[in-house]
Amino acid sequence: MVFSSYTFILAFLPVVLIGFALLGRVEQRRARFAWLVLGSLVYCGWWRLPDLLPLAVSIVMNYRLGRWLEAGGLIQKKWLLALGVTANLALLGYFKYAGFLLTTVNAMAGTEWDAPPIILPIAISFYTFQQIAYISDAYRGRTREHSFLDYCLFVSFFPQLIAGPIVHHAQVLPQFYRRRLRFDSADLSVGISLFVFGLAKKVLIADELSPIVAQVFNNDPGTPLTFGLAWVGVTAYALQIYFDFSGYSDMALGLGRLFGIRLPLNFNSPYRATSVIDFWKRWHITLSEFLREYLYIPLGGNRKGTTRRYVNLMLTMLLGGLWHGASWSFVLWGGLHGLYLMINHAWRSVTGKGSSGQPATRGLLVTGLSRVLTFVVVLIAWVPFRAEGLPQVKRFYNAMFGLSGIDLNLGEIDNNKALVILGCLLLVWLVPNAPTVMRRYRPTFGKRLTWDGWKPLAGWVWRPEPFWAIVTSLLAIACLMQMSRAGEFIYYRF
Fold first, then answer.
1. One domain, residues 210 and 175
2. In angstroms, rounded to a whole number, what is the distance separating the alpha carbons of residues 443 and 465?
3. pLDDT at 359
4. CB contact at 8 A, 468 and 462
5. Measured between alpha carbons, how far is 260 from 442 in angstroms, rounded to an integer?
6. In this structure, what DSSP letter does residue 141 have?
7. 341 lies in a domain?
8. What is the pLDDT of residues 187-204, one digit of tens each?
9. DSSP 1-24
């Protein structure tokens, strides 16, 4: 039951909203908490009922650890934190990496051990990291006392359960406590509009790009892969995953807002980044923040010299790549971004731009060239992220770097498909994203958004007025007409 399905939009969501509205008349707010938890468990169990078991085990284990950490002494707390992190990673490691590790051992040692038939539970990567952050915050004294029901809602809240954002308890629970959770007309307007904008990105753009990507990446290895076809295919995939993840992020923000909750921004036009450092402040923002706070800084960050800093950057990105998937292709993707970040930081050190990396004034030409260069290196790294294995990665790189010749032939990619890709690129680079268009109404938790794109569109701001109501309605109708072909979100696989 993905967000972009008839079952979710026409059945599940209306039932949850109606129940939430009716329970809004009940004085006991935890009745609404219980309803949302029940709805979230139904949503998770809809995929595979057995997926509820690891989720329940994780919730109970981390809730108890959090309470013990809040009450324990310093020495005891260190052992409890180590135990909690180890237990969480062991649970994630068993489901996600057992088969990968056995396959690797077999390849290296010549053994023939059979990998167990393990199915990855939905959302385990996200709720595991979210709860590691929770017990770490409990160790540092940053948590407050709360009931088990409150904690269940914090972990399982369905708008962000499956693919993020990864939230801290301090970002979400106070919002539930602070207000009477009843429908608000502004929340409904903002929430519905955000959801529809995200749905349009997913159904009308990302899913329409999917066949073009498949046509290039799933072709017969014996079929020639030309220079032009390789670059067009990778660009199409970069746009597909962009609109897919951007669409999901907008839909999650919108769903949260329907219940009066602002979720943190998780996606902020990353292809307008002017450096790889800037890219990782815009792509999967909450994962980047988690890796920085709970991995990079504990490893030493930039406090132990330049060499150690670069080692820490590479380790962080390698593990971040492995988090996305149990294969050497994802490790390579993380390693490439680790290398990019090392080069980026080294360049800043040489040019003396400091921690921000932004000069006081920056010309349009320099900004444009920086964005193009960043986009190109990100494109190169997307190859192992999408490829079916290292042999296909090698095949694409041979074609993209001209090792097989410079042939601009696009094969079966006709002019119409090429124009679609070009149009999507213009949307990415010139048009403000949905949270930015709605910035007056604070669609996200945290700081206010600002427009950093094409200046003529700086005044393009959403308002609850007839024009935007018509736009939203037309987009919703178009999505409903196309939704029968909608696929799952790419990040649901992680």
1. no
2. 17
3. 43
4. yes
5. 12
6. T
7. no
8. 899 999 999 999 999 999
9. --TTSHHIIIIIHHHHHHHHHHHT
Cβ–Cβ under 8 Å, residues 186 and 441: yes
Is the domain of 153 the same as that of 199? no
Query: 9 vs 16, 192, 223, 251, 427, CA distance in Å?
Result: 11, 11, 41, 11, 26
Using one digit for the tens of pLDDT, what is the confidence trace for 242-266?
999 999 999 999 999 999 899 999 9
Bridge partners (DSSP) listed for residue 267 = 283
Sequence-separated (6 or more) residues with CB below 8 Å from residue 129 = 166, 287, 290, 323
Are 150 and 191 contained in the same domain? no
* Prediction pTM value: 0.92
Q: Write down the pLDDT at residue 316.
A: 95
SS3 content of the chain, % helix, strand, coil (to 5): 70, 0, 30
Is position 324 annotated as part of the catalytic site? Answer: yes
| Shared-domain flag, residues 200 and 223 | yes
Instruction: Dig out the tokens for 216 from the structure.
Output: 């290039």
Closest by CA position to 134, among listed 143, 147, 123, 124: 143
pLDDT beneath 70: ranges in the chain: 27, 74, 115, 178-183, 222, 353-362, 453
| Overall domain count for the chain | 2
Q: Specify the pLDDT at position 410.
A: 83
Domain stop point among 165, 183, 201: 183
Q: Are residues 83 and 145 in the same domain?
A: yes
pLDDT of residue 70: 84
Contact 471, 462 (CB under 8 A): no
Final residue of a structural domain among 142, 167, 183: 183
| Residue 324 is assigned to a structural domain of this protein | no
Residue 315 lies in a domain: no
Question: Per the residue annotation, which of 284, 324, 337, 345 is the catalytic one?
Answer: 324
Q: Which amino acid is at 363?
A: G
Q: Are residues 403 and 438 in the same domain?
A: yes
Q: Rounded distance, CA 285 to CA 33, Å? A: 27
Report if residue 80 sits inside a domain: yes
Give the structural domain span for 234.
187-274+358-488
Q: Is there a cis peptide before residue 116, judged by omega within 30 degrees of 0?
A: no
